[in-house]
Amino acid sequence: IVARSCYTHTGKKTNPHLLRDMIVTHVRESSGATERDLEALALFMGHSVAMQRTSYDRRTMNQKVAPAVALLKSVNQQGKGESSE
Q1: pLDDT digits (tens, 9 = 90+) for 67-85
Q2: Which CA distances in Å does 47 have to 25, 30, 82?
C-alpha cells in the first residue's frame, strides 16, 4: 500500500524503510527538534536512539560542534565583561 501510494504520488519507487529514512532525515535536518523529540521519534519508528544518531545524523563535524563553540565564545565574552568592571 505504501509503495503504491508513493509511486502514484511521486512517480518514484519507494518502500517503508526509505519512507522512514526520509521522515527521520527531514525531521533531524529542518525541524529544530529537541533531543527528547528525536528520542521519541526513534522509539516510535522502532529505532534505538543510538542507531538513529549514527544512521541519520548527516551533519559535518563543524556543524556538530558549532553549539559548543558558540557556548565557549559566550562564556569567554561574559568573562571579559566581568573582569573589566
Answers
A1: 899 999 999 888 777 655 5
A2: 13, 20, 46
